[in-house]
Amino acid sequence: METIQPVLDKFFIDIRHEPVGRVAAEKSFVGVKTIFNFIPTGEEDSVEFGHLTDTDDPQSMGSYQTYYRRYNLLCYFNFIPEKKLDDDGERVTKKREVKTTVRKLT
Question: Model's pTM, two decimal places?
Fold first, then answer.
């Protein structure tokens, strides 16, 4: 956001994100609708991203929504993220890998 905020301010564009979805017994839908408002006229445009999931875990739902806000902005403005900045959590996952040692009890 730091990169695009000056441009948004210059052209009087406001952005808001609204969670969308529903929680169900078998499959839940989680997503985010990003709304772009041209302040002088009130004209709005939006983009929405979401998917079906097997979980209703609040932590997972929050993580999805965080990613979807970012992906909506990338999609709307046709940005291509730099690989070093957008590794889909790969760096963090590698740091968290834990090696398990199994010992035979005698």
Answer: 0.70
Residues 46-89 pLDDT 10s: 999 998 988 778 888 888 889 999 999 999 998 887 765 555 55
Helix (H, G, I), strand (E, B) or coil at 65: helix
Helix (H) or strand (E) segment spanning residue 96: helix 90-96
Answer positive or negative: Cα dihedral of 67, 36, 44, 76.
negative
β-pair partners for 22 = 29
User: Domain limits of the chain?
Assistant: 5-96
Q: How many whole angstroms separate alpha carbon 31 and alpha carbon 66?
A: 10
